[in-house]
Every structure is written in structure tokens, then in C-alpha cells.
């Protein structure tokens, strides 16, 4: 399932029917504070997106709720018409309220409206990959997902969604979705310090489904660990680089979508994720999450 690409660390993964770089890009950071409003530096945001694609990244994660609209409109401005091999993944299942909150919005008419909004802001006729975002801001919440997921399956059958995934999901919800229709990815919070999905990742790897960790660098609270800093110093690297390299090593079905609003960090992350971890490094890093 994986092949080597000379340009980006991690090679490629076939997401549904299309090969994507395992080193992708998460676009949520291209807004104002708390994912509301325009970015501080509009031109830099556009440049980050163009650099990402010029550097070989073919998997970008977005959502119409980022801004809202802001990130999708930036993607359109920077990259439309989209390159043939580029896969843009988006999410539905929440909306934004006046205080910047993320209330659930998973009724069928709400999901259809969100799919339409994504089509419009991205400027496409078909969405490459739509994740049904479950749970709430605190994480996954157990419970049935059938009515919401079936709405997306219906839109997929109408031809306006190519592939489906789930996000912020419990393992049971992943199974429930897969009992209804094929999914190509699960996007959950996971990083060196948050290892709750270890069994799920291994199971999905065996079944050819991608696992896309959000907050790979810790998100709003950057990863901080003495062990991580020690391993990074030993390798002449940085904690962020080691965290990304570890994810690429963790399992071949892991696709990275680290977020950044800066070209300097983007290239630092791409370069940094090439760092080679020894068995000793891996043993030390294993201790952080458990
Ligand atoms: N499905 C969901 O519910 C969900 C939830 C959250 C996020 N996501 C997706 O996951 C993606 C990744 O998550 P994220 O962006 O929130 O968190 P992240 O990738 O873990 O971390 C991003 C943060 O790390 C900083 N950073 C990046 N590279 C750095 C470097 N080399 N040195 C120092 N700081 C660095 C960024 O700041 P700078 O901008 O200054 O570089 C930013 O503050 C998002 O972009 C979004 O697409 C999905």
C-alpha cells in the first residue's frame, strides 16, 4: 500500500482510489485566533498553501467551519483550479456559533447544507473526501451515527461526494459506519502523548483504512515532554520533527496533517520528519504516552 516518493517523508498511501503523500497539510491554522476570522497575514497564508502543493503535498485537510468559510476561500484563492492529484478532505457535522463555539449540526438538512457550502466555497462539483465529525469539543461521544452517516452515503450516491470518512469517532462508531458503507479514513486526535487509539490504528492498518491524527503536534497545547526533548537533542533535531517522524514510523496507514501558518515551519516540518529514529529512540518515545 505504501511506495516511496523522493520528495516527502513517508511515501504515499492510496486514499480510496488516489495516491496521496503521507505527509499532508492541515489548513485549520490559516484563520484568526480560535479558528475565527481571517488570518493575521493573508499573503503568507496563500503562500503556505502554494508552497505545500509545490513541495509535493497532495492531501490537504480543511472544513467550511474554519473561519467559517475563511480557509476554504483561501484554498480556492491559492490553488483553484486544483491540481489533478490533489485530494482535499473536508468535514461536516458541526457549525460555528457567535461565540466561536462548535455546536453539533448533524440533522440531515444541516449536513446537506454543509456539503453545499463546501462545494461552493471550494469551487468544486464533487468533494474528494467528507468526514462526518462526531462527538463534541471534548472528544468522541458514544452513540448511534446511522441517520447522519446515511445522509452522507445518500449524497455520495448522488455523486457529489467521492469518499467518506469519520472523525472524532469511537471504535464502535467506526464499525457502525463501516457496516453502512465503506470509509477511507478515520480522523481522530492522536499524537505521542495521546495514544488511546493504538488498537484502532492497528486494526484499520490491517484493513487498508487510513488513520489521520489531528493535533499531531499537540494542537493548541504544543507537545511538551522531557523525554521528547531529550531524544530530539540526541538526534540534533527538534521535538516537533521527532513527533512527526514518530507518527510516520508508528503505522503505514497514518497520514500526517500538521498545521502551520508559516512557510518556515512548513519546510522545517517536512525536512524534520525525515529524521531517522533508532530502536533506542523508539523505546524512549514509547514511554511518553503510556
Ligand atoms: N477532525 C477534527 O475534529 C479536527 C480538530 C482539530 C484539527 N483538525 C485538523 O488537524 C490539523 C492539525 O491540527 P492543528 O493544526 O490544530 O494542530 P497541530 O498540527 O498539532 O499543531 C499546530 C500548531 O503547531 C505550531 N507549529 C507547527 N509547526 C511548528 C514548528 N515547526 N515549530 C513550532 N511550532 C509549530 C503551529 O503554529 P504556527 O502556525 O506558528 O506554525 C500551530 O500552532 C488541523 O489543521 C485541522 O485540519 C481536525
From TrEMBL:
PANTHER family with a match to the protein in the record: AFLATOXIN B1 ALDEHYDE REDUCTASE, ALDO-KETO REDUCTASE YAKC [NADP(+)]
Protein name, entry field: Oxidoreductase
Domain NADP-dependent oxidoreductase, chain residue ranges per copy: 24-286
InterPro entries membership: AKR, Aldo-Keto_reductase, NAD(P)_OxRdtase_dom_sf, NADP_OxRdtase_dom
Biological classification of the source: Bacteria, Bacillati, Actinomycetota, Actinomycetes, Micrococcales
Keyword set, alphabetical order: Oxidoreductase
A Pfam family reported for this protein in Swiss-Prot or TrEMBL: Aldo_ket_red
CDD domains, sorted: AKR_AKR13B1
Organism from which the protein derives: Curtobacterium citreum
Organism superkingdom: Bacteria
SUPFAM superfamilies: NAD(P)-linked oxidoreductase
Amino acid at each position: 500500500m505504501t511506495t516511496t516518493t523522493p520528495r516527502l517523508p513517508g511515501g504515499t498511501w492510496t486514499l480510496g482510489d488516489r495516491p496521496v503523500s503521507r505527509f499532508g497539510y492541515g489548513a485549520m491554522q490559516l484563520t484568526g485566533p480560535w479558528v475565527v476570522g481571517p488570518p493575521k497575514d493573508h499573503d503568507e497564508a496563500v503562500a503556505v498553501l502554494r508552497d505545500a502543493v509545490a513541495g509535493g503535498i497532495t492531501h490537504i485537510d480543511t472544513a467550511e467551519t474554519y473561519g467559517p468559510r475563511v480557509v476554504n476561500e483561501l484554498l480556492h484563492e491559492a490553488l483553484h483550479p486544483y491540481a489533478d492529484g490533489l485530494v482535499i478532505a473536508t468535514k461536516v457535522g458541526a457549525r460555528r456559533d457567535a461565540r466561536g463555539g462548535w455546536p453539533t449540526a448533524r440533522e440531515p438538512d444541516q449536513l446537506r447544507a454543509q456539503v453545499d457550502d463546501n462545494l461552493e466555497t471550494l469551487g468544486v462539483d464533487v468533494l474528494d473526501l467528507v468526514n462526518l465529525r462526531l462527538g463534541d469539543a471534548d472528544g468522541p461521544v458514544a452513540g448511534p451515527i446511522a441517520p447522519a452517516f446515511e445522509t452522507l452515503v445518500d449524497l455520495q450516491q448522488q455523486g457529489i461526494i467521492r469518499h467518506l470518512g469519520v472523525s472524532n469517532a469511537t471504535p464502535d462508531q467506526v464499525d457502525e459506519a463501516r457496516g453502512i458503507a465503506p470509509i477511507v479514513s478515520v480522523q481522530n486526535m492522536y499524537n505521542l502523548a495521546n495514544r488511546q487509539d493504538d488498537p484502532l490504528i492497528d486494526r484499520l492498518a490491517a484493513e487498508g483504512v487510513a488513520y489521520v491524527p489531528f493535533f499531531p503536534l499537540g494542537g493548541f497545547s504544543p507537545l511538551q515532554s522531557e523525554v521528547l526533548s531529550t531524544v530530539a537533542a540526541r538526534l540534533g533535531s527538534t521535538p516537533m520533527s521527532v513527533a512527526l517522524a514518530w507518527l510516520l514510523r508508528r503505522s503505514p496507514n497514518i497520514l500526517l496533517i500538521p498545521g502551520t501558518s508559516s512557510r518556515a515551519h512548513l519546510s522545517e516540518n517536512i525536512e524534520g520528519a525525515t529524521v531517522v529514529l533508532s530502536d533506542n529512540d523508539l523505546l524512549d518515545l514509547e514511554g511518553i504516552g503510556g
